[in-house]
Design brief:
The chain is mainly alpha-helical. The protein has eight helices and four strands; from the N terminus they run E-H-H-H-H-H-H-H-E-H-E-E. Helix 1 packs antiparallel against helix 3, helix 3 packs antiparallel against helix 6 and helix 4 crosses helix 5.
Length: 250
């Protein structure tokens, strides 16, 4: 017997919200190209008060089509996984994670405009990986390994391997996502519990274990209801009299 603590559910928001987010960053980029605007100065500029506006705006701003494309698929896949497997906490993780990633970048970053949704991508990566391990649920653990298989190479970019890449934003996102994995506990699906794992389980009352002695030897034991009536013996005698007529006696 298995006690299901929760169920994963798929709905239009599971894919709809991630698609809307991805669509919005593409629209912003199209608007820049189409009308000749440049929003890069709205990025996170560390340790400058006006640079704090980038906490809200920077995830929607990208330097070029390559930068945008590199963030699109990971953002779509990881956010969809978030809304599917962690539906009760999806908005909390996404909003709080995005804000704190921006603040951490503002605090740690180099004096430059830090733009792009990659900080959120790393935040989602950190949350999905570590939360799956912590939850000890086989489906969430499997999700953790899938995330690593698909995007494990991203870990290299939390180090200053390229001066054009905001490794500070990546590191901030990974750090914030990992913290959220440890602090977000309510609403997370629980691992399946079998009846012998329940607190009120009594091995003395387990019908299966009754078939084994204290040394682990199997004992063939009939259920009590099968033993009822075994003491009643019915004997039927059959004989023939002189008239060759058959009679039965109980």
């Amino acid at each position: 017997m298995v006690k299901e603590q929760n169920q994963f559910e798929f709905n239009t928001g599971t894919v709809g919200y991630p698609l809307l987010f991805v669509l919005s960053i593409w629209i912003v980029f199209w608007f820049e190209v189409r009308f000749g605007f440049e929003f890069k100065h709205f990025g996170v500029y560390p340790r400058d008060l006006i640079g704090l506006r980038g906490v809200l705006f920077s995830p929607f701003i990208h330097s070029d089509i390559t930068h945008l494309w590199h963030n699109t698929l990971p953002l779509l896949i990881l956010s969809t996984a978030l809304f599917y497997f962690y539906k009760p906490n999806a908005w909390k993780v996404l909003i709080i994670g995005a804000l704190f990633t921006g603040f951490a970048t503002w605090f740690l970053g180099r004096p430059a405009n830090h733009i792009g949704a990659s900080g959120i991508v790393y935040m989602l990566f950190g949350f999905l990986f570590f939360k799956g391990i912590i939850a000890k649920h086989f489906r969430l653990t499997a999700l953790s390994f899938i995330v690593v298989f698909l995007y494990g190479s991203m870990v290299w970019y939390v180090f200053p391997v390229d001066p054009k890449i905001s490794w500070e934003g990546h590191l901030s996102g990974l750090f914030v996502g990992t913290l959220l994995a440890f602090f977000v506990k309510k609403g997370v699906v629980k691992p399946n519990l079998y009846h012998w794992q329940s607190p009120d389980y009594d091995p003395e009352e387990d019908e299966f274990l009754k078939h084994f002695d204290e040394n682990g030897n199997f004992i063939e034991q009939l259920p009590e209801e099968d033993l009822k009536g075994q003491d009643e013996v019915k004997v039927i005698y059959r004989y023939n009299d002189d008239s060759n007529k058959s009679k039965e006696v109980e």
